[in-house]
Amino acid sequence: MKLIQTLVIVLCSIPLFSQKTIETFTSKKLGADREIYISLPPSYEKDTNRNYPILLVLDAEYLFDPFQGALKFGNYWDDLPEVILVGICQNKTEERYADSEFDEETGLPDSTGANFFDFIGTELMPYLEKTYLIAPFKIIAGHDTTAGFTNFYLYKDNPLFDAYITLSPDLATDMENRIPERMGLITKPIYYYISTADGDVKKMQKRIKELDEKAKVIKNTTLNYKFDEFIGASHYSLVLHSIPNALYQFFAVYQPITTFEFNEKIVKLEYGYVEYLKTKYDVLEKSLNIKMPIRLNDFKAIEAAIIKNKVYNEFDELSILADKYYGKSMLADYYMALMYEKKEDYKRAQKKYLSAFQKEPIGDLNKDMMYDKSEEMKQMQQ
After folding, report:
1. Spatial CA neighbour of 164 closest among 185, 141, 182, 145
2. Could you write out the DSSP letters of every residue in 291-306?
3. pLDDT given at position 10
4. CA angle, 160 as apex, 156 and 162 as ends, to 5°?
5. What average pLDDT does the segment 103-121 reach?
6. How far is residue 57 from each of residues 62, 100, 147, measured CA to CA in Å?
7. H/E element holding 194?
8. Which residues pair with 197 in a beta bridge?
9. Which class is domain 259-380?
10. Rg (CA), the chain
11. Cα–Cα distances in Å, from 21 out to 37, 85, 336?
12. What mean pLDDT comes out for the span 74-95?
């Protein structure tokens, strides 16, 4: 009962994305109107200088809410970034099949499928990029028929989307061969997630596994690929298993330093802890186009690694980095004081702790602590 109460409190306290708004989009390519669902991140109205990755979801009438829930929960724990979520409604069964239509011989979008392909690429995405604060990192997602359709964008030399979430895709002609071939040739970073289940539609499952066999041996450093097969799941229930796995795969570099990362990667280094931290955030910016200040907890993780391995000179570099992101706080002076203290230069340590005392508190660092440390360093000099 206590666990249930805790979960209710957490879910109720999650900062809300904007409520799902519905726009009617008039498309010349489709010769019809389409309902578009849009959900903006919590900080969207407050930070007009920031751009956000976009996730375009097909079959929005049943996929939009599960994606929105996963994004809300992941963002609450700072595991997933804020994302602009857009969904295209395909309310009628015949409509989603018409949107995904392809020529059986060529395996390429045909007729209404070609129109829908162009609608997304030449009408909807340009409109969204003009209207909203969208970063260059773009994701598209679909389920079975629409999941197979998303793959058509990979046939382009410069794909419109950077990341693909294909949930039990119903693959078009020869797609199990063409997609791995394209994955090996595309030079820009591509993120690709594909899933099936032991209870999936057998004809889909067979071809999905054939695609996986070819994709997992690709030697392309720009490809971020993940395949999941869920045991005990059906063609429909695999969706709820897949969504968080896909998002956490794509945004793994965004997550704060975990216990596993600390123990298995950072602590095992002989040196270069600060460089590791800088590289982590550089990769985040370059691969996902997300620029953000280094988290305080990540500073603390590097601090712990430096102390554990007694590489105290790295506090100098960590102090410079702290001053860059938290210049008004006591963090930079604290790291210099800590370096001098560990090297038993207590006079300089005392001065730096006093200097930190005059700055703004941050995290668990406060004025009482800095004063007490300066007094301790004074005693150490006697």
Report:
1. 141
2. --PPPHHHHHHHHHHH
3. 44
4. 105
5. 97
6. 10, 14, 10
7. strand 190-199
8. 230
9. mainly alpha
10. 25
11. 6, 11, 50
12. 91
The matching CATH number, chosen from 3.30.540.10, 3.30.420.40, 3.40.50.800, 3.40.50.1820, for 15-254 is: 3.40.50.1820
Using 50, 70 and 90 to split pLDDT, how confident is the model at 142? very high
Q: How confident is the model at residue 18 (pLDDT cuts 50, 70, 90)?
A: low
- Please identify which residue in the block is written with the tokens 């900080």: 43
| Percentage of the chain modeled with pLDDT above 70 | 95
| 190 residue type, one letter | I
Q: What is the enclosing helix (H) or strand (E) of 222?
A: none
Indicate whether 318 pLDDT > 70: yes
Cα→Cα distances 140→67, 152, 176, 316, Å: 12, 11, 19, 43
Q: What is the mean pLDDT of residues 63-71?
A: 97
CA distance readout (Å), 279 to 142, 275, 276:
33, 6, 5
Length of the chain: 382
pLDDT in tens, 277-317: 999 999 999 888 888 999 999 999 999 999 999 999 999 99
- Sheet containing 32-39: order of strands: 21-27, 32-39, 84-88, 52-57, 134-143, 163-167, 190-199, 223-234
Average pLDDT of the chain, as a whole number: 93
Per-residue pLDDT, 6: 40
Q: Which of 61, 54, 83 is nearest to 70 (CA)?
A: 83
The distance of Cα 230 from the centroid of its chain, to the nearest Å, equals: 22
Burial class (CB in 10 A: 0-12, 13-18, 19+), 216: exposed
Q: What is the DSSP string of 20-53?
A: PEEEEEEETTTTEEEEEEEE--TTTTT-TT--EE
DSSP structure class, residue 229: E
Domain ranges of the chain: 15-254, 259-380
Structure tokens at 229: 């097969």
Give the Cα-Cα-Cα angle 275, 278, 282 (nearest 5 degrees).
Answer: 130
Q: What is the pLDDT of residue 233?
A: 98
Q: Measured between alpha carbons, how far is 131 from 78 in angstroms, rounded to an integer? A: 26
Sequence-separated (6 or more) residues with CB below 8 Å from residue 184:
218, 219, 220, 223
